[in-house]
Amino acid sequence: MTVVETGSSERVIGKHLLRREDPALLTGEAKYVDDIWEQGALYMALLRSPLAHAKIVSVDVSEAKKMPGVIDVMSGRDLQGEWAAPMPCAWPVTQDMKNPPHYPLATDIVHYVGDAVAVVLASNKVSAVDALAAIDVNYEALPAVVDLEDAASDRILVHPSLGTNKSFVWKVEPDNDKVHEAFASAAHVVKNRYVQQRLIPSALEPRGVIAIPHPYGGEYTLFSSTQIPHILKIMLSMTVGISEAKLRVIAPAVGGAFGSKLNVYAEEVLALTLARKLGQPIRWTEERSENSLATIHGRGQLQDIELAADEQGKITAVRVNIIADMGGYLQLLTPGVPLLGGFLYHGLYDVPAYSFSCTGVFTNKTPTDAYRGAGRPEATYAIERSMDALAKKVGVDPAEIRRRNFIAPEKFPYSSAPGLIFDSGNYLPTLEMALEKVGYEELRKEQERRRSGNSRKHLGVGISSYVEMCGLAPSKVLGSLRYSAGGWESATVRILPTSKVQVVTGTSPHGQGHETSWSMIVADRLGISPDDIEVLHSDTAIAPYGLDTYGSRSLAVGGSAIYLATERVLDKAKLIAAHRLEVSVEDLQYKDGSFSVAGSPGKAFALSSVAFEAFTAHDLPEGIEPNLEATVSWDPPNFTFPFGTHVAVVEVDEETGATELLRYVSVDDVGNQINPMIVEGQIEGGIAQGVAQALYEEAIYDEFGNLLDTTFLEYLLPSAAEFPSFELASTVTPSPTNPLGVKGVGEAGCIASPPAVINAVVDALSVFGIDHIDMPASPQKVWTAIMSSQGSGRKVE
Amino acid sequence: MFPASFDYAKARSVADAVSILSSVEDAKLLAGGHSLLPLMKLRLASPSMLVDIGSLAELSYIEDKGDYVAIGSMTRHHDISWSRVLKSEIPLLPYVASQVGDPQVRHRGTIGGSISHGDGASDLPAAVLALDAKFVIVGPKGERIVPATEFFVGFLETVLSPDELLTEIRVPKFSGGWSFQKFNRRAQDWAIVGVAAVNDGGTRVSLVNMGPTPMRARAVEEALADGASIEAASLKASEGMDPPADLNASSQYRRHLAEVLVKRALTEAV
Amino acid sequence: MQITTVVNGKSFTKDVEPRTLLVHYVRDVLGLTGTNVGCDTSSCGACTILLNGESVKSCTVLAVQADGMELTTIEGMASDSALHPIQKAFHENHGLQCGYCTPGMIMATASFLKENPMPTEAEVREGLEGNLCRCTGYHNIVKSVLAAAEAMEGAVK
Description:
Strand order of the largest sheet of chain B: 4-5-10-6-7
CATH architecture of the domain at 423-472 and 639-797 in chain A: 2-Layer Sandwich
Helix content of chain A: 25-40%
Helix content of chain B: 25-40%
Radius of gyration of chain A: 28 Å
Strand content of chain A: 15-25%
Oligomer: heterotrimer
Number of domains of chain B: 3
Largest interface: A-C, 57 and 58 residues
Strand order of the largest sheet of chain A: 3-5-1-12-9-10-11
CATH architecture of the largest domain in chain B: 2-Layer Sandwich
Largest sheet of chain A: 7 strands, mixed
């Protein structure tokens, strides 16, 4: 078990410390991209294709150019010479992965509704938008590929030059003979197809960018509503052809992201390119309906999953085939998303044989990419729905089937069949705690009472146990998966001459409260007040190295780097203190901001004095450099594996098909918790997003590739009125992977909740013989299922 | 996102508004703006001029007139939902008003705006239809009074001509049961189907989002008048209806919901 | 067209195009960028401000409609560098994460609590039906509003 060393007589780690980020956000003082004033900036607006698949016959911008306030209007062809490289896909998952060139503006063919074809620059926002209507584009419509199986059939090609719609086939097949044997000799086999509907991430702040050239200095500053300023800087330098050393990227306040701002977008490339071309600042802010079309979507998979099990329901093999929707192009991590789930379709169950295959296909739809959980919610949904199906087949309670299959605590570190090492885990207590907390037995009785009383409001209870891999990631492993970057994180801890502390992190928060949590890690180790610690981030000029925030990595990797940098600073301070106290380093103790000598109460030297000594450098020990600062780039040895069990209780109205979420209980184990208040906030938000996937949200396309729900009127982001309060609890199983013993929490909620809710809905509907409802379980879908199960809508008795 | 360019005039009186409407082609009235402005932002409507009647305080009132309550057309949903007079005399109406949109919408949206827009998916038009309200309309030729049953003509179409203005809604008092059933997926959304029922000796039932206009469920009303049970009458809920189909509901599902919700409404009201 | 508004207690007379939305007037003309825009369809409530003391979605009001009215934006809530009790309650109950919906949530709450000073949890949830948040799952927002109600009621007594 990891014990985090502290220099504080009262622990800071583990406190419900209120967030230092809040006051600026609560008062309107915080500046998001669109709030930043830039003198003389031109406003950019993009004309987007109304067709999913079409040849661009001609683009006539002449009328638009004459509009008042318009500075210039350019088509894709007009800008063809400007790019140094196509927009990047950083995850070529296989050697032969097909990746069509993708430029910020389409030149010959548009591949989805929303694909940009022309750009307007104007002196004000209104003129820029008004001019869009004056651009005359002549399209020749082509048939669109919308359905995933249709895409895989290659009946119509999205990119004819590739010869196929299949971008790649990627497999995890450690031992196929073993899988075949297990299925051949299985007592029970359950085989199901599940649909992961497309989701629109819908961060509440739409994207925005301001590109500012400094024509005489030859440098550029780019403000972007991004979660990856560091990666963006590298990628923009390569695609636009600007020296990386001349480009500064800043992510100011960012209004949520959930993976949707983990990308390199056409508008970022365009704004920077046009700023270079015109020598003027260029700004752009996305509108919501643009966000629905031109910001990546999440999920979008067809999942075929089979479990083989013995007589008792002990799983002997899992076999999975999925088709994953790439959309019209590959964005930054598009093909890698299904891989992140590809190792986890056996969930937290001890399964000896495993086979997974994923086919990534192009369609004429908005590109997909990482959305909160990225691959892991998909895997968890498939296995947790299958576990309920298996329980039914074996004839045991859904809780019991899970008990029979959990990886036993003594098996950790656990080598999984697909090849991961699960760091630590103790799964059963989360299940038992969740059942206890929800009052499982009593709910089952209530369910029975309703059923026997012919109630038309059916109670359903759904369980979902989950494990995920996060803390992305050991760089070597990423390399073996053909990811184009590493997974380390960088931190600098700097004790200033006046003993105030600056922490520089390579993570890039957008709501997670890193400033608060990171200050707590340092305060706890140094035994000083968190108020004396400033956390600097999200500006590549201030934090030159970093790999940003995604994949529940920031605390496990970035937080660990901070902890280690603090240790290193303290080691140096100790040398200076020992020198000044004229004792040996081994005799020094450190507590609450002061070095003292064991057994000599009078002999002490404050950290603040060390800081000033290090600054003046008048009397430093031999070989010690001035200043008190350390930088650590930490590469984790493994992923981390948070886990837990969630239980949803729903009521389904048989007459209308409406589902009401009555209660939601979660027991999560995210390892050690730095700030439990923030941990709970992350879980609550995640639960709500997962419940939204289960009951409300879906990007709906018609057969022509038109997205039908581009605004919040149709795309049903739920409000407070649609949720109960959540009931949270946790267990703590520290991770041995990192010095903080933490696991990560950003995605857990939305990984666990969709199957919990759907299992509950299906449980409620089991009286009708219904064994599945696809997400989102809309009232109409539920009602239709009841009707087709009966013909009459009345239940079978 | 913002509307296309237009001219703007602030009406100083009802007569002033009518006179501008009759002299400017394609001018539209602007009340609270919560039906019109969203359409204009999406550029689904681009009137040449907006005639703002928002500052006509004389159109915002709720007055007890003995056997009916007179409501000025610029009275906001919020004021209706909090009105003591309405809560005691016509409790259906404040309840329905409290179910429209969300608090912000109710602070701006007006009953006259909602009725004039004539949307079959709106709650208040269906409510005033079930309440047998009458509308006072002022135009260049003077004033006329039209019963709610004759007001709604087609999809977003009413008997109002472009130069007319709805000034007052007269809602008869009733004593008896009532119910409003609104089925939607999110609290802030429009009804997928809604039902307003008033039982006042006879029973009047109207439906939200079951056709191009707010609809009276005549078949249900007649069945009840003929002595049918609630169960039997509610099965006639979608008779004569041509419900729309959209992302939330097929026409068939809407027909089914209408039956369920009418049954619930009648059970509560009768 | 010239309009006069009193914004956070200060009077402004400005020229605006009739089509200027109130939110753009507040943000672009007055430079009060605390009010955010999250959607195009008056669904999300991020742009909620108080117009004559009542919550409205400023993306669905024309600036010209606000002529002669009083506006309160998020910038007008804290005074003398002390947070308003609602802001304080959001802070103390972790009622925000990315903060983008927060100004709108706070303004909606201010109006809601004026109308219903001692709400139940269910009433809070209904009262915030017009404000969307993607981060918090609303759990702590609801807690914050209940805490604010308690604090403000206490202040009244």
